[in-house]
Amino acid sequence: MQHAFETVISLVLDLTSLWAQPVQKLLLQVPRCASVAVPAYSFPEKFSSFSFLSLLTKAEVIAALVKVRAECNKVNSLKHT
User: Are 51 and 57 in contact (CB under 8 A)?
Assistant: First the structure.
């Protein structure tokens, strides 16, 4: 029994020696200025091409999808009862 107690004590002392070691702080480089260079991006052009290819920008389509989801939820709730 004494041997197990000594093993536990030695393990605890090993762990506390790990905690007692100083932690090195990471030195981060501070940027010279607070701005980041951003490449040219034409938002209106990209949005118009997205709108042309997608129906998810029309209010009628979004309303129809909401109604379809509501019906799916109703059917799903009937299946689980």
Answer: yes
pLDDT score for 12: 63
DSSP SS3 for 61: helix
Tell me, what's the pLDDT at 70?
96
Cα 21 from Cα 16, distance rounded (Å): 9
Residue 25 tokens, joined: 């702080």
Query: In 1-81, where does DSSP find H-type helix?
Result: 2-20, 43-53, 59-79
- The structure tokens listed for 8 are 């536990």
CB atoms near residue 8 (< 10 Å): 9
- Highest average pLDDT, of 10-24, 27-41, 67-81, comes from 67-81
Sign of CA dihedral 57, 58, 62, 68: negative
What residue has token string 């209106």?
Answer: 44
